[in-house]
Design a protein that fits this description.
The protein is mainly α. It has four helices and no strands. The chain starts with a helix and ends with a helix.
Length: 121
């Protein structure tokens, strides 16, 4: 009974993790700029791979294998957000701006010029 429950739980984790990896891969292809693509990659790496590792840990034949998989999972949860932050910070430092920031600046500049013309008349 417990073995069947662990099998179902493990396959549910593996299937859900695979879904998140697939959707994250689509996000990396479809999203417009570095920051949104990096967000898709970071979430995919953390959540998708984490669920797959948790599913594999429930399917492990020995407790030692499960402990090793959980150690990899903990390492992944610590390093993936840190590397995403470091990459985003260095991209921002290099002058790469998000796409939405450019659109907001253009919108703000055009609305400021419109308001400027209204104030003069």
């Amino acid at each position: 009974m417990i073995a069947t429950f662990l099998d179902v739980l493990g396959w549910a984790f593996i299937g859900t993790g695979s879904f998140f990896l697939f959707v994250g891969g689509l996000g990396i292809i479809r999203l417009p700029d570095l920051y949104t693509r990096m967000h898709a990659a970071g979430v995919t790496d953390t959540l998708g791979a984490g669920l797959i590792l948790a599913g594999l840990a429930t399917q492990a034949p020995d407790w030692l294998v499960a402990v090793k998989l959980l150690a990899i999972l903990i390492f992944l949860y610590m390093t993936s957000p840190t590397s995403s932050y470091a990459l985003a910070n260095s991209a921002l430092f290099a002058g790469i701006r998000p796409v939405l920031a450019k659109k907001r600046r253009k919108k703000r500049a055009s609305s400021a010029s419109r308001h400027k013309g209204e104030n003069e008349s």
